[in-house]
Amino acid sequence: MDREALAEFLLRRREMLQPSDVGLSPGVRRRTPGLRREEVAQLATMSTDYYTRLEQQRGPQPSPQILAALARALRLTSDERDYLHRVAGYSAPDRGAVTDYVRPGMLRILDRLHDAPAFVVSVLDEVLVQNDAARALLGDASHLVGLERSGIYRWFAHPESERGRYLESDHARQSRSLVASLRAAQGLLGSRSRAGEIVRELTARSPEFVELWDAQEVRRRFEEHKVLVHPELGEIEVDCQALFTEDESQALIVLTAAPGSEAASKLELVRVLGTQVV
């Protein structure tokens, strides 16, 4: 690990970004160029103290997960992301594998979506980044680790807690859709990938999953219209639009409702109140 190179790179990249580049408000008069350390820490969901120690060459070797979060926060290109990993003492990530890295162009679009719930997911239904509106509507995904990050895994491993966001009449369709998308992901990534690990874990614990997996359905798409169930506001009808990356490894999902509808009012209420209980 080259602490000096890592610290210098983080500092320069931070100085090159403005709050508007990452969807933040400029706020009061700023004394230093670029983003503040606390803003980078906020974007990367880490403590300001931890990030500060990295810039001051005092921190421990950051994990690949921390580096992925920093690459998103600093809007690094693929080449810059690879350099960040190398100076931190790791090989560059495999660009063909499932990764937490989100391209800057996708993040710029997400930064400009404040009113509508929006988030970026991987082929394994892992939420990589989400805006405040999505966090308020669907919950904060940043604390999830391991296989629990996959919405496919949680749907079958923890049905009692995960399926409440959908109408019971929609559970069977959602189960089929998730299994079909997992088979598509395993076909892309291979049986030794994280997709294969999810298949093995769910095969051991969910008869429902086994039955659907044996059906050999393959499909990766998002329903254009769905009904979500909010714990306080009840049913919310939303339209779902998906913007895929060129290699279709990630998708930006945006949820909207018809203007003037009851659902639109509920989405606005959720956005304004955030994660507070209504």
UniProtKB/TrEMBL annotation:
<dbReference type="Pfam" id="PF17765">
    <property type="entry name" value="MLTR_LBD"/>
</dbReference>
<protein>
    <submittedName>
        <fullName>Helix-turn-helix domain-containing protein</fullName>
    </submittedName>
</protein>
<dbReference type="InterPro" id="IPR001387">
    <property type="entry name" value="Cro/C1-type_HTH"/>
</dbReference>
<dbReference type="Pfam" id="PF13560">
    <property type="entry name" value="HTH_31"/>
</dbReference>
<dbReference type="InterPro" id="IPR041413">
    <property type="entry name" value="MLTR_LBD"/>
</dbReference>
<dbReference type="InterPro" id="IPR010982">
    <property type="entry name" value="Lambda_DNA-bd_dom_sf"/>
</dbReference>
<feature type="domain" description="HTH cro/C1-type">
    <location>
        <begin position="34"/>
        <end position="81"/>
    </location>
</feature>
